[in-house]
Structure formats: C-alpha cells, structure tokens
Amino acid sequence: MLETLGLYPSWYVPVIGSAWVMGIIGTIHVLASHTSVGASWLFALIETKAVRENKPELMEYIKKYGVFLLVFSYIIGSITGPGIWYAITVASPKGVGGLIHNFVWVWAAEWVYFTVEVIGVYALVYLIGKIDPKTHLKLTWTFALASWATMLLIVGILSFMMWPGNESWYQTGSTLDAFFNLNFFAHLGLRTAFMFAIAGAVGGILAATMKDKEVRIEITRFLSKMGIAGVFLGLIMWMWYVQTLPENARIIMQTQLPSYIAPTLFAVLAATLIYFAWSAWKPLQLKQGFAVAMTAIIAIAGLWPEERSRESIRKPYVAGQYIYSNQTIARDVEGKQIKSNLPQIAEHGVLKTHPFTPVSLREVTETNRLQAGEFIAKVMCANCHSMENTGLRPMPQKLHGSTDVAMIKAYLGGALYNGTVPYMPRIPLPEFEQQLVAEYLASLSQPQAAMKQLTLAESR
Amino acid sequence: MELTANETVAATLQVLRDPAGIPSHPVVFQVLMVFTWVFHMLFVNITLGSALLSLYAFQHRQNRHWNQLSQGMTKAAKVSVSMLIVLGVAPLLFTQVIYDPQWYSSNVLSAAWAIGFIFTLILGYSSWFVFYFKNHDGVKNSAIWWGIFGLAMFVLDGFIMHVLSYQALLPEQWLSWYSADGQADMSGTGLHAYQPGRFLFFMAMSITVLGAFLSAYAHYYKVREDKEHHYLTFVNRLGRKFTFAGLLMQSVTFVWWLFDLPEHLQALQSPLSWGILLFMAVFAAIIKGKQSREMPASYFSLAMAFGLIALIGIFREALRIHYMLPFDYDITDYKVMEDIPSTALFFMTLIGVGGLVGGFFLTAIYKAGRTQGMYQASKQVSQLGSAAVGIMIGWIAVFFLTGIWVWLHNV
Ligand code: HEM
C-alpha cells in the first residue's frame, strides 16, 4: 500500500466557491470586531472626560452606544468570529489546522481575553449609574486595553497567513519567530487605525439620536476627530504595510488585482474624510441615516474589496507560505519537521494518494475517466476556480472555452507542473493524471468533445 | 501487502494529523478541552432551560410572578447565549489540536451545516434579542413567536453540534458518506449520523440545570429588599421541581444512550456509567428530601449540576478514547514540538488577566447586582480595579518588548 497524503475531503460550493463564503463572513466579522475595539477606546476617552470635567450627561451616550454594541458587535461579532474559523475549516481544513497547530497557545490566550471581554461589556453597560464613577472608569479602561489586546494577538496570526515575515521560522519553528516581524507591526498599525475610523462612523449612528444638544455637538466633534486621525494614520500604515509584504504578494498586487479596486478604495477614503470633516463643522446636521450610509459604504465598498484583495494576494498559499490553498504542503519546514507533499504527488498522483478517493475511482477505467478527472480537478483547483461558467475565476473562461485536450494538458504539464505561475500552486500531476484532468476540463466547455474523447479512447 | 479495513482507517487518521505537531504534551490539551467544555455545556443548558421557561411563563403572565419570571428568564437566556459562545470557542480550539483528523473530516463532510450553524445562530440570537426588547409589561401575545423562533434555532444548532461531534467518532464510515454513487459528494449537505439517546440526554440536562439555576437565582436575590420574598420562594420551589424532573428524564435518556453504544465499548460494564447513574439518583434523592422539608434556596443544586456536567464531560471523552481504540488512535503519540514561550503566554494570561481582570469584572457585577441603588466600591474592590488596569498595561508592555526583541534578533 502506498503512503497516503494528509488531504481531507473537499467542500465544493457551486458558482461562488467556498472562498466567497469565507469572504462574506470575514467582512461582517471585521466590521463588527473593529467597531467594538474602536468603540471601547472611545468609551474610555469619553468617560475620562466625563469624570474629569464632571459631565455625567456624557455617560448617556456611552450607555446608548454600549447597548447598540452589545446587539450589533457582540451578537454578530462573537458568532462570526468562530464563523470565520468554521468557514476556513470547511474551505481549507489543512490551512486552519496549520494555523492552530502553530498558534494554539496564542489563540488560547486570545480566548481568555475574549471571555473576559464578554463579561466586561455587560459590566460596562449595565453598571453605568449602579457603581461609583471612579470604579466604573477603571472598568472601562481595563475593557479598552483588553479589547485591544485581542487585536494584538489575532493580527499576529493573520499576518502569518500572509507570511512568517522572514526565513527564521522555517528553521526554528518557534511561535515567537512566526509571530513577530515588521509585517505584523505594520498590519497591527493598519488595523488599529481602521478601528478608530470605523468606530467613529458607527458612533455617529448613536450620536445623532442624542437629545441634549450640547452633548450631541461635543460627541459628534469628538467622533470626527477620532475618525480623521484614524484615516490619516491608516494611510501611513498602509504605505508601510505594502513595503512589508513578500515579493510574490507584491507582484500579484501589481498585476492581478481587478482594476476597480484601487480607485474604489480611494473614493471611499475621500468620502470618509469629507464625511468626518463635514460632521465636525456642522455636527447638528449629522443625521442617523447619513451615519448608517457611511458605515455601509465603508463596509461594502471599502472592507469587502480590501478583504478580498488580502485574500488574493496571499495566493497561492493559505498560511505561512508553506500550505497551499488546495491543502497540499508546498515546501519542507525543517523547524517543524514538515515535509513537502509535492514529490509524492509527482510520483504517484492524486487518485492513489488521496485518502478520500472514492473506491470506484481508485482504478481508472474507460467508463470512469471523466469522473476521475473531475475528482482530481476539484481537489486541486476548485478552491480557487469555479467549474461553472460564472463565479470565482471560472475555469472554462480561464481556459478561453478551450476544448483542446492536448493544449490543456500541455499547460498542466508545463506551467502548473513546474510552478511558474506566481499566483498558482505548483501542481505536479503525473502524465496520466494530466490527461484525465485535461479531458475533464475540456469537457466543461463542450460536453460533446468529452464524449468524443471517450469514444476515441475506447477505440484505442 | 493488503491492509485490513481498520488499518487503512488508522493510517488515514495518522496522515491527517497536522504535520506541524503540537506545542505541549497532548494530555494538557485534553484536560483543557474537557474542562472548558464543561463550562460550555453549563451555559448551553442554562440557555435552553431558561429560554424554554421564559416562553412557558410568558403564556401565564397574567399572574405577576410568572410575568416577572418570564422577563427575568428572557434576560438570563440572552446573557447566557453570549457565554455559551465564548465558552464554546475553547473546546473548539483544543479539540482541533488533538483530534484534528476527526473534527475536520466531520465538519467538511457536513460543511453546509457547519456554515448553516453560524447563520442560524445569528438569526436565532437576533430573534431572541427582539423577544427580549419586546418582553416588558403590556407586551402583545404575538411577541412569543420571536422567542419560539430563537429557541428553535438554538435547538437546531445544538443538534448540528451533536451531529458534528458524533460523526467525528465514526471514521470507518467517512469514505462511504463522501462517495455517493461512486463519485465524490463535495456538497457537504448531508447529515450522516446522529444518536437520539445522546442528543436527548443533553437536552434533558437543560431541565436539571434550569432547576439548579433557579434555586441559585432565588438565593442570589435574597438580600435585595426590592425582590419580594414570595416571588423568590416561588422561584425556588419551581427550581427544585425542575431539577427533579430533569434528573428523571436524564436517567431514561442516559440508559438509552448506553444501549445505543457499540458492543465493543462495554459501556454497560463501565464503573463510570454506573457512577453517573448513581450520582443522578443521589442528587434526585436529596432534592426530593429537601422539598418535603422546605429547605431554603442555595447554590447547592448548581454545584451538584456542575459536578454532573463534569462527570459527563469525562464520560464523553472516555467514550471518544474507546471509539478510537480499534483504529489505534492515541493522542499521546501525537508529535510534540515543544514551544515554551507561547505556552507561558497562555498560562500567564490565564492567571494574570483571567484572574485579575475577569475577577474584577465578576466581582463588580456580583456586588452591584446585590446592592439596591448605587454600589460604592469597597477598598478591596477598588484595589482590584487598579490592579486590573495595571496588569493590562504590564501585559501590553511585555508583549511589545518581546516583539521588538524578536524582530531585532531576526534582522
Ligand atoms: C445555541 C448554540 C449551541 C448549542 C445548543 C450547543 C450545544 C452543544 C451540545 C449539545 C454539544 C454536545 C454534543 C455531543 O456531544 O453530542 C456541544 C458540543 C460542543 N460545542 Fe456547542 N452548542 C452551541 C454553540 C456552540 C458554539 C458557538 C461553539 C463554538 C464557538 C460550540 C462549540 C462546541 C464544541 C467544541 C463542542 C465539543 C465538540 C467535541 O468535543 O467534539 N458550540 N454543543
């Protein structure tokens, strides 16, 4: 019996692909979680002011925003958190497994904060006016610092998904080496800046409903200042962040991102600045509807493209530049005694080494060739390509509707076999499986062609 | 050389383990997994129990006590869903460390449900919040539908959790679930296996825990003069009834579960099985005894219920170990790549932050809840607050200093 590879079953979502499922949940989560961390700082700053200048009326706002946060961020945020995790689990079990096995203790520390925070947000909201102001202020500051600490931890793990920052982790396998590097610090700065901006925008939704005029003006101006600071800091951090990306990610960023992304992001940025400047100037004109609209714009036109790009430029890896999106291990990692899967695939192919190859496909016959090709193609390519005509990087389109088996096979045996495409994994299928995949991919554009192939093969 | 079916499964489980290994001894993760799961289950049970009771009480809200109870339980369920979620994250993490082949395979094979779990939980929880905002004096009858929908989603999510846990125990069937008609079924839309006795047992436990929770609730509010004595006595009595009824249902479903287990586990011969039955019997007897003597409300039942969940947690893990025996899957032979710094990070955070910061928050909530009007922090509580702020600043400082040191070391 051959050695098998550590490959899990695949989950194939027609048309949108599992990557989009992840993207949708991820965007919602980023919105909710950054709002809540940013808001916790806002609370701490405003409450300090309230206690120092003896303005208890400001607490009314914190209470309102707090209840809103409980509903919005804590329902949505705390469910979509594990939600992203579930989504990566089913879309890329090897990827999430790699992250967890490298960072389990970091994640566990994060969990301590997470638990403390959930208790904290209830305490913060419900104890306003029920506990003396000084003690409450301590509570709010503790909460803000703890919230930010969750960000410190998770951003390190997310940065590792892009890359470990330098070569040392591959040698040492140490979690510290995987975690701390310039890419992490820049990424952290970027997210910290963003959290201020988004909390400023969401804060407007509540500020607009404040009855007391003075309070409303004071709070709205405060939000604007925080928002503007966040946007500018974010810009600087972005420029730094790009410098800390690995080479292949920068190439993809320059060549592969859809052309609408950069202008869209700039438009959102400009809109955000105008919005904050205007609400600082005319705080009473800020209506709830505007704030809702601004939040929606940031989420849909800002966050979604941003999340998708980060996901794209990480390609072809899911984690640490050693696990490919299609579950295979791309290289040796001495520090963890990890061996690349590629030599084995090159030698024996997928059908023989995948532990979840359906029994009937273990032996390829004239009648199941197409199914066998489909299985290999879905295992190796479907994480990034839909097999339909629409959706995520649709395969038939990428092949320009080609039905030429020999040509597709040449591509599989050339660029993909040797791993010369920077945004695609190296997929060294043996010649026999290249043929099967090529037949299947050709059949996508023209089912009859496949039939002809079959009859051809039969007559051979 | 041909492998037997079990040997093939065993080989698959081995290769599916993450090649990076794990950073500490496997038993450390196992203990944490069971321990944190107990807290998850405690809040799952409080949620399901209090949600059910709040709906029942809602229908009887013409009566003042039931009305008050319905509102109280709606709020309790609301808070405890938050808790069950965060407390679910820890066992979710630890189970993936030592049982990653089982957990990932089971999840991918029912991927659509795993994702559906997230969306239904969001819908259910949002719906519950609507019910919570509506459930005040003078609420319309129709509001109950928000609550019913919320509870239904929670139960559905519990069922999905159950299926994912149970499928993970049956590696010999994964391949056949995956290959429908000779082709790979990558849709992830199937729920492939469930065990009614086991699932219903967890549901029944909600009644027991609800009862214990009510007794504790009555005890907690005893010192508040604005909470009527009659009401608290009413709640306490109800609590004991539920605990007793829950224990009965649990005993029946537990036996059902035992009889559903495969022969080779020999669960009926296990002292642990009998221990659990005995524990439930003793617990029920004490409750029954108390009822006749009108014992006052206390935290006793809650402590017992916690003990029971802990036993079940251990039982559940013992079962998993035995389910895996035929496939030679033993967590203690997982590749260990010791990583001291990150291990220290966790335990220090757990003790420092969990203890001080968590302790401060809980103390504040506990004290303020038992005080009518504004609570003026005592000297100790005030110092605890300062220590909490201090430890956070210290933690963040150490984090950055370490980070900068590592970075400089690597350039
Ligand atoms: C309303 C929502 C939920 C309910 C009713 C629920 C209920 C349950 C039940 C009944 C079990 C035991 C299943 C069995 O052993 O047969 C369980 C286990 C578990 N739950 Fe939950 N749960 C919920 C939400 C969550 C969430 C949000 C998470 C994660 C963030 C989670 C994580 C877990 C884990 C990790 C296990 C143990 C799995 C194992 O050991 O294999 N649960 N849950």
UniProtKB/TrEMBL annotation, chain A:
Presence of the UniProt keyword Transmembrane helix in the record: yes
Q: Which residues form the Cytochrome c domain?
A: 368-445
User: Per UniProt, which keywords does this protein have?
Assistant: Heme, Iron, Membrane, Metal-binding, Transmembrane, Transmembrane helix
Q: Does the keyword Membrane apply?
A: yes
Q: What sections of the protein cross the membrane?
A: 20-46, 67-88, 108-129, 141-164, 184-210, 222-241, 261-281, 288-305
The entry's protein name is Cytochrome c
Species: Thiomicrorhabdus heinhorstiae
From TrEMBL, chain B:
Keyword list (alphabetical) reads: Membrane, Transmembrane, Transmembrane helix
Keyword Transmembrane helix in record:
yes
| Top-level taxon | Bacteria
**Could you confirm whether the keyword Membrane appears in this record?**
yes
Transmembrane segment boundaries = 34-58, 79-99, 111-131, 143-164, 199-221, 242-259, 271-287, 299-319, 344-366, 387-408
Name assigned to this protein: Uncharacterized protein
- Its source organism is Thiomicrorhabdus heinhorstiae
